Every structure is written in C-alpha cells, then in structure tokens.
Amino acid sequence: MTPVLLGQVAAVLRGAAVPFGDRPDVRSAIAKHAVTGPVRVDAAGLQGDEQGDTRIHGGPDKAVHQYPLDHYAAWRSELGDLPVLERPGAFGENIASTGMAEADLCWGDQVRMGSVLFEVAQTRQPCWKLNTRFGQRDMALRLQRTGRTGWYYRVLEPGTLQAGDAITLVARPHADWPLSRVIEVLYHRTLDAGLLRALAALPQLPPSWQKLVARRLEQGEVEDWDRRTQGR
Question: Which PROSITE patterns does the entry link to (predicted)?
C-alpha cells in the first residue's frame, strides 16, 4: 500500500523501575521522562527503558507503548488539571503522539517511526497502578470504559526514533479490526460469541488473550477484573 501519514511523535519517554506507591514489594517504571535526540529501539523496546514486573510488562509483544497526547484534554476536562497531566508520560507511555487514536489503527498494522518498523501487537489492558498514579480509585476502569487505553507494538525492524518523527502506516492486513473494535469486544460486548470467535481468529493473538476468549466462550461469563484494575 502507499504509505499514509497517521500522526507525529510528540515525545519519546523511558524510565527506571523504582519502588511504587505505599507497597514496598511493588516496583514500577510508569514514571517515564522525555528523552532528547534519537533513541535506539530493538525487540526489547527503548534502550534504557525498564519494567517493574516483567511477568506482565515488556517482552516482544509489549515492547513499546504508545498513548495519544490528544486524549489529555478529555482527561483534564473529566479529572481537572492534575499535575500528572501537565506533560507527556502520564500513562507510562514510551511514545506520546498527536494526530491519531485507537480508531485510526488496526490489529497488525505496520507503522514506521524514524528508522523503526513496528507492528501493532495489542491494546493495553489497564492496571491498578494508574489508580495510584492519578489518585483516582477507578482510573484503570475509566481507561477501558472510555476506550482511551493506548496500545503496544512489537518491533519488526530495529532502529532509532525521536520526537518530531512522522508516524506512517505502511501495511494494513486487518482493516476490519480497528483497535476501537478490539476494545469494544474486550470491555463492552464481552459475551458476543460471534465477535469473540472473530477476535480469536486474528493472527498473533497473545496467549493470555486466547485463554480469555476461550473462557468467555466456554463459561458464558466475563473474567474478574478486580485483580488487574484494583490490585486485589
């Protein structure tokens, strides 16, 4: 396909894993800081970036997290002028972008930024650490309820990127599966058997998602979100 301009990299961010909140047993790198100049990106993610719990964060299918800076205005409108929303990085993203959102990307899209070629790997399933970061007991649930979750990439071609780079779509194999539709199935039309089977048929569906879909189809009920969204 002819490359299509989707948006622009507003900031590139990375962070170190440090003790988080009032739980000394928990570490997190959600507090990321903008980087000046080119940053190397490989299959593991941004050079110098860390994850607090590699069982659920990072890895090749969550190498880089992007979040639309365009969503920040809506969050400020709903939550007020929180300090965490004053600059990019509020959601622990590696790439803060402008000009695009979940409805503008599809499952498996291949996207180039700088010399890096990414592939859309999954949408974010928000966790309880956002509640602590924002001082909102239901922040994780707010993300999934609004569909403003952000998304993850795997890295197909390593390289470098930096703030100001164009974000260009170079391949779209699943145009009928925008990320907004994926989010709709995960959190709203949760027991629609036809949609669940269609989601399960997508290539490179993460193993944890395969199990989620299989359980919903077999049991006819939605999994408990409390552990992920409330930390319990």
Answer: MOSC
pLDDT tens by residue, 125-140: 999 999 999 999 999 9
Structural domains of the chain ordered from first start: 4-174 (2.40.33.20)
Whole-Å CA distances, 4 to 169, 194, 196: 5, 31, 30
For the chain, give the percent of residues with pLDDT over 90. Answer: 90
Distances (CA, A) of 38 to 6, 15, 159, 170: 20, 16, 9, 21
Instruction: Tell me whether residue 108 is exposed, middle or buried, using C-beta atoms within 10 angstroms of its C-beta: 0 to 12, 13 to 18, 19 or more.
Output: middle
d(CA 85, CA 15): 17
Please tell me the distance from the alpha carbon of residue 96 to that of residue 98, in angstroms, as a whole number.
Answer: 7
Structural contact between residues 229 and 127, judged by C-beta atoms closer than 8 angstroms: yes
